[in-house]
Amino acid sequence: MPAPAAAARVGHSGRVNPLLPPLLSCARDIERHVAAAGWDQPARLFALVPTAQLRAAQPHLAQLSEEDDDALSAIEQEDLPPADSVETLLAQLAWPPEVDGIALAVERIVLPPQAQADLPRTDAEALAAVAQHPDRQDVRLLVAVRRDGSATCLLRQRAHDSDDQVAVGQDIAPGLVEALSATLQD
């Protein structure tokens, strides 16, 4: 199935930070954009395209920053196909060559490792136990990948909901990195 139709360009802010790789700079812009809408959101998906390519293809976007030809712009995808899970959704997607990468924002509940050992075995019972657990943490993951294999992950905790408290790493969510990368394979 082809990628969903583009809805709105949200990524590249024009504030290019020459010290950050383009993927991380774009991912931070997306994460802040998603965070501005608050918590308890559905998964949100973004196509990443080179800003210079977008500027050339869409002359009405000439105001996009020209200071960094490596910059990426994010285009949020709406009208996603129905799916029971993020994994099912991603398995339905394929991207045209113009899309250099993708990013996914998804909220999750996490527990400390010692709390996970005592969870019930059935999915329904485990979900109920996690939702009621006193040590649960609500987090939002923003995972961004490019066709060249580069990836970055950002993690925001509801308990520390501040732009300066967002964790950044390449291996925070390896399963999501792998699943997103698979959608970019030809």
Structurally, the number of domains stands at 1
Beta-strand content: 25-35%
Bulk shape: globular
Total strands: 7
Reported for the largest beta sheet, the result is: 7 strands, antiparallel
* Amino- and carboxy-terminal Cα gap: 13 Å
Q: Measured on Cα atoms, how large is the radius of gyration? A: 17 Å
Number of helices: 6
Output the helix-strand order.
EHEHEHEHHEEEH
Share of residues in helices = 25-40%
Mean pLDDT: 84
Low-pLDDT runs of 5+ residues are: 1-9, 11-16
Strand arrangement in the largest pleated sheet = 1-3-2-4-5-6-7
InterPro entries: PPA1309-like (IPR047681)
Q: What keyword list fits this structure?
A:
single chain; 186 residues; alpha+beta; 6 helices
Provide an overview of this structure.
There is one protein chain. This protein has 186 residues and is an alpha+beta fold. It has helices at residues 22-35, 51-57, 86-91, 113-116, 123-132, 174-183; strands spanning 6-9, 44-50, 72-77, 101-110, 137-146, 151-157, 167-169. It has one domain (6-183). Strands 1-3-2-4-5-6-7 form a seven-stranded antiparallel β-sheet. Strand 5 (137-146) and strand 6 (151-157) form a beta hairpin. Mean pLDDT is 84; it is low at 1-9 and 11-16. InterPro entries: PPA1309-like (IPR047681).
